Amino acid sequence: xxxxxxxxxxxxxxxxxxxxxxxxxxxxxxxxxxxxxxxxxxxxxxxxxxxxxxxxxxxxxxxxxxxxxxxxxxxxxxxxxxxxxxxxxxxxxxxxxxxxxxxxxxxxxxxxxxxxxxxxxxxxxxxxxxxxxxxxxxxxxxxxxxxxxxxxxxxxxxxxxxxxxxxxxxxxxxxxxxxxxxxxxxxxxxxxxxxxxxxxxxxxxxxxxxxxxxxxxxxxxxxxxxxxxxxxxxxxxxxxxxxxxxxxxxxxxxxxxxxxxxxxxxxxxxxxxxxxxxxxxxxxxxxxxxxxxxxxxxxxxxxxxxxxxxxxxxxxxxxxxxxxxxxxxxxxxxxxxxxxxxxxxxxxxxxxxxxxxxxxxxxxxxxxxxxxxxxx
Amino acid sequence: xxxxxxxxxxxxxxxxxxxxxxxxxxxxxxxxxxxxxxxxxxxxxxxxxxxxxxxxxxxxxxxxxxxxxxxxxxxxxxxxxxxxxxxxxxxxxxxxxxxxxxxxxxxxxxxxxxxxxxxxxxxxxxxxxxxxxxxxxxxxxxxxxxxxxxxxxxxxxxxxxxxxxxxxxxxxxxxxxxxxxxxxxxxxxxxxxxxxxxxxxxxxxxxxxxxxxxxxxxxxxxxxxxxxxxxxxxxxxxxxxxxxxxxxxxxxxxxxxxxxxxxxxxxxxxxxxxxxxxxxxxxxxxxxxxxxxxxxxxxxxxxxxxxxxxxxxxxxxxxxxxxxxxxxxxxxxxxxxxxxxxxxxxxxxxxxxxxxxxxxxxxxxxxxxxxxxxxx
Lengths: 376, 376
Fold this sequence. Notes:
By secondary structure, chain A is an alpha/beta fold. Chain A has 15 helices and 16 strands. In chain A, 40% of the residues lie in helices and 17% in strands.
């Protein structure tokens, strides 16, 4: 009996946006919400106690990376990922598929910059019905990732929400190949679900809708996956080259997913996308954008982004945002952050990341308020 | 009228060690104590609120680095270094001399590895009676560092304790040249003191005893500087190639300094040196050893050092030290730190630095207790 439960508190009168609550064994996730990415079990530059205190309710960890370092056995013996990394709040893990296929095909960004035609460094040895065989870039060990082994790994990690093993097809692919990739992904997701249901362990499992930029295949994916008892629905794969293409595709998709279940947009969470996608009814978004931006000296504020390395920040002795209550804004000035970045001090990355993460938590709280007021 | 004051609470019956209290405008420094190095106004990987909360009572910042970035004017306009960097507790700055002469001559370590014969990259353009002319490695700006400009810079920074401009002579130097370097250093220190006394601004100034490895010149330096109204005495320059040489030299020196004034050992603070030097009556020690060790995955514990990247740490799910009350030990395990270092996560450096700094604060507290009990 899972303690996972989704309740919708309010459906906006103005859009498809809704405010909800996802209940998990490690607490509540208010939706819509932003999910930060802690690939290796940490947000870069922050410790997990600080992340908890900022109020980030869901953190994304990557099974592929954790498989290779420290390895699933270490996490299992630690008593699961929460205990291992010192996080009290909910965690979601992916299947490892995304990274393995990124290695094989290159990322969409690579492809769009036409770096994707040459395959990467040959770590992926075989892709077949069973799964994917690849070689660890850390120690050369052979690893077979299948729907079953991915789910078993995610059982050992023990995240609150897990994701079935799927194929990330290349962006440039003809329809026939995309269709056979989708069919295999569906078979893999079904096998993942079956494996999960043998021992649900209080975990929820979200399907991943695929079909690339083909509306018909996307519809088929929604249909196939909605018929299976997944706890939620993630949207994966390429949604187009531009934001309008993405929004158009999502608008169509959202009507085809079970409205009573939570949904998640994989790998997209920049501010502009949030603005466009929240009215479509998307519940959670994961992205490394705000934390990566922080490490590149880009600070998010209600008044727009601040490039803190710019000369005009040199003598700004006020906080990034006087209304911000984050640790960084309460204690340090823009001028000091400017200095830390110029001096290439690690502390710069930490303080900027704290602020950007706090900004996202606050931004999502405001979105929820706006939806409750039917303003969005 | 300066609020600087030194009181000796206890003189050990067993050695020259003493327990004291240095009163400064930003609070008390219990002695003996360890002084961490925050070259650019931050300990690498920690923010200054965290550093304050660990209880580090004195932090060392480098005038040379701050002159170049962010520049003294920025700090002045911020209202001084404490406000600029968000530190509530005492700060000590050096004169800039050490770094400028390290650039010119190479460090002692360089010399001992015989890299020191070739001069560095020519940033230092001229050394003469007036001072040193050098070129900023950041923007190519010409900077004249003299006793007067160094003190003026340190006035703008506003540390609780400042240091006169001195020459760091090369380790390999004949006695005649060492003698003329010492004479000039004495003239520079006197000029620095005069400049300081025109406007003491609640700051204390510590002389720097020089004379290299020559006992006679060291005695002369103690004699000359003790006759001047400095608030304390730092020991600088090379004290020998080995620890026994250093300890022998310090033992002799300590008897020649005014016992009622605080003293400081510049740039030395590894655990072995502390063990040898505290019984000699040294009050404060600055060193980047514990923070640099942390970034190299070396954790300090009462039971000895732990190389946390070693394989045996992979599955150690207990804290670094179960008796340690630091943030890192309260929240995270050795296995997690091992993982973070293996994954090359910035968080590793932060968590390890917190622990090592807390260890030093605690170690010094124990030294003070041992002295109070006449055990040392």
